[in-house]
Each structure stands twice: as structure tokens, then as C-alpha cells.
Design brief:
The chain is mainly alpha-helical. It has one domain. It contains 14 helices and no strands. Helix 3 packs antiparallel against helix 10, helix 6 runs parallel beside helix 9 and helix 7 packs antiparallel against helix 12.
Length: about 300
């Protein structure tokens, strides 16, 4: 009886450790993703050229990691992703296309607000397709984080259009679907699939880009953009989602919303508005509170 109790406690501790590790990986991923605005301001090139090089360098970075991790078994690791891996690459690339077009047809504020619904959409999809449920505390934390985003970006002040909002919603659903598939396939490393998605992003924007325009310091910035923001962000997200529930992963990923203006403020002196500060604090407090309650 005592042995069974000991095994139960050991299993519980291992689950707790995996949850914390996964949460840290997702938080680190959100931090990496949040530097997008910083690099966009830093690089003096058109957005299509930036996205082309970002995807290419990110793909090379993840490919190098996959080869380092698997060695001679790299081919087997690529084949192991199967159909689910192809769906992950598709949804990731489709989300990127929708995001680019949404930002051209509506405001950043509306895109951000729509994307803030990601934890709830992810939770519904996870429940419907893989039967994964989450505690009420996580759902409440998601609602508070969504409130924080609304405070940061006033939807009444934006002049968006229906087409742009629909594209932003399609992007949010695509990302949620990707998270659920990653979670459902947690027994298999899907890093080759995310590597494929990075290369696909470059292929999609190639006709609109001018790769030859990148040179000198801009090329160095592009390497950092691709490796740190996109490549490392994807790598950490893929590994972290294997260890925590889909909705929790999506919730922690909202950390990038308050972090993004912080980097721009520190680097370029663009002081965030009072509403941005208040909303950002609510988002961080919601996620931190959920993590504290979960640890108990």
C-alpha cells in the first residue's frame, strides 16, 4: 500500500515538473515572439523582404537543431511527423498569410483583440477533438487576460474593416488548430513540421520580396530576427506545448502582448500609453495568478 502511494506521489511530482517546464518554455517562446516589433523597427527594408529572410533563417536554425538532436535518425524523425506534421505546417503558414493581409486591411488593435480570444478557441477545439479539459481557474485567467487586452487597445477607436477582421479570426483559428495538433502529437517531436512551416513562409512571400536588397547591418539584423524571434520562438513553443495543455499554452503565450511595447519603449524610447501599461499589468497578473494557483 505504501509502495503504491509512493509511486502515486512520484508520478504527481513528475507531472508537476513537466507542467512547470512546459510553462517556462511557452513563456520563453512568448518573450521571443514579442521582439517582432523591435526587429521590424530596427530593419530598414520592406515587410515582404523581411519576412522572406526571417522565414529562411528560422528554417535553417530549426533544421540545424533537428539534425543536432537526432543525428543519423534525422530522416526517421522527419518521416515520423506524418500527416499531422503537414497539417501543422499548413496551419502555421496559413496563419502567417492571414496575419499579413489582416494588417493591411484593418488596425493592429483589432487584430490583437481578435487574437486575444485564442485561449478560448484553443480550449474549445482541444475539448472537441482530443477531449482535453482545463480547470476553471485557467478559463478565468484567460478572461482576465482578454480584459487586459481590451483595455490596452480600445476597439472603438479603431477603423477596421470586415474583411481584415475575418482574416484575423481565420489566423486565430489556424493558430489554435496548430496548438491542438501539437498537443495531440506530444509523443512525437514536431520540430521538423515547424521547420517546414518556416520555409513555407519564405516561399509564400518570395514573389513579393526583394531578397537582394538585404545587405550589411540589415542582413545581420535579419539573421537575429529569424533565429531569435521566429526560429527560437517556434522551437520553444513546439517543445513546450508537448508538456502543458493546449489552452494553458495559448494563455501563457499572451505574455507577448504586453512585452512587445516594452521592448520598443526600452530600445526606441516610445513610451507606452497609460492604458497599455494598465492592460499589460492585468495580462501579466492573470497569467501569474493562474500559475500560482496551479502550483498549489
Amino acid at each position: 500500500m505504501a509502495e503504491a502511494s509512493g509511486n502515486s506521489n512520484q508520478t504527481s511530482n513528475q507531472t508537476c515538473n513537466r507542467t512547470w517546464l512546459g510553462s517556462l518554455l511557452i513563456a520563453a517562446s512568448a518573450t521571443a515572439y514579442s521582439t517582432a516589433g523591435f526587429f521590424t523597427r530596427l530593419i530598414d527594408l520592406d515587410i515582404w523582404t523581411v519576412l522572406f529572410w526571417r522565414g529562411l533563417f528560422a528554417g535553417l536554425f530549426i533544421a540545424a537543431y533537428v539534425i543536432w538532436e537526432n543525428g543519423r535518425q534525422t530522416g526517421a524523425a522527419v518521416r515520423a511527423i506524418g500527416t499531422r506534421g503537414l497539417w501543422i505546417a499548413f496551419f502555421s503558414t496559413f496563419a502567417t498569410i492571414c496575419l499579413l493581409n489582416a494588417l493591411r486591411q484593418t488596425s493592429v488593435a483589432e487584430v490583437t483583440i481578435i487574437n486575444a480570444t485564442s485561449p478560448f478557441i484553443t480550449g474549445v477545439l482541444a475539448w472537441l477533438f482530443i477531449g482535453e479539459r482545463e480547470r476553471w481557474t485557467t478559463v478565468v485567467a484567460g478572461l482576465l487576460a482578454f480584459l487586459g487586452v481590451i483595455i490596452m487597445f480600445d476597439p472603438a477607436a479603431s477603423a477596421g474593416h470586415l474583411a481584415g477582421n475575418l482574416l484575423a479570426f481565420a489566423m486565430t483559428i489556424s493558430l489554435a488548430a496548430m496548438m491542438v495538433i501539437l498537443r495531440h502529437s506530444r509523443a512525437i517531436s514536431m520540430l521538423p513540421a515547424t521547420c517546414l512551416s518556416a520555409f513555407l513562409c519564405s516561399i509564400v512571400v518570395w514573389p513579393f520580396a526583394n531578397p537582394g536588397a538585404a545587405s550589411g547591418i540589415n542582413l545581420i539584423y535579419l539573421v537575429l530576427f529569424g533565429v531569435i524571434q521566429f526560429g527560437l520562438g517556434l522551437l520553444l513553443l513546439t517543445n513546450g506545448t508537448r508538456l502543458v495543455t493546449a489552452i494553458r499554452s495559448s494563455l501563457i503565450g499572451r505574455l507577448q502582448i504586453p512585452l512587445a511595447p516594452t521592448w520598443v519603449w526600452l530600445a526606441f524610447g516610445e513610451v507606452p500609453t497609460f492604458a497599455t501599461c494598465v492592460g499589460g499589468l492585468i495580462v501579466v497578473a492573470a497569467i501569474a495568478s493562474e500559475a500560482a494557483i496551479k502550483s498549489r
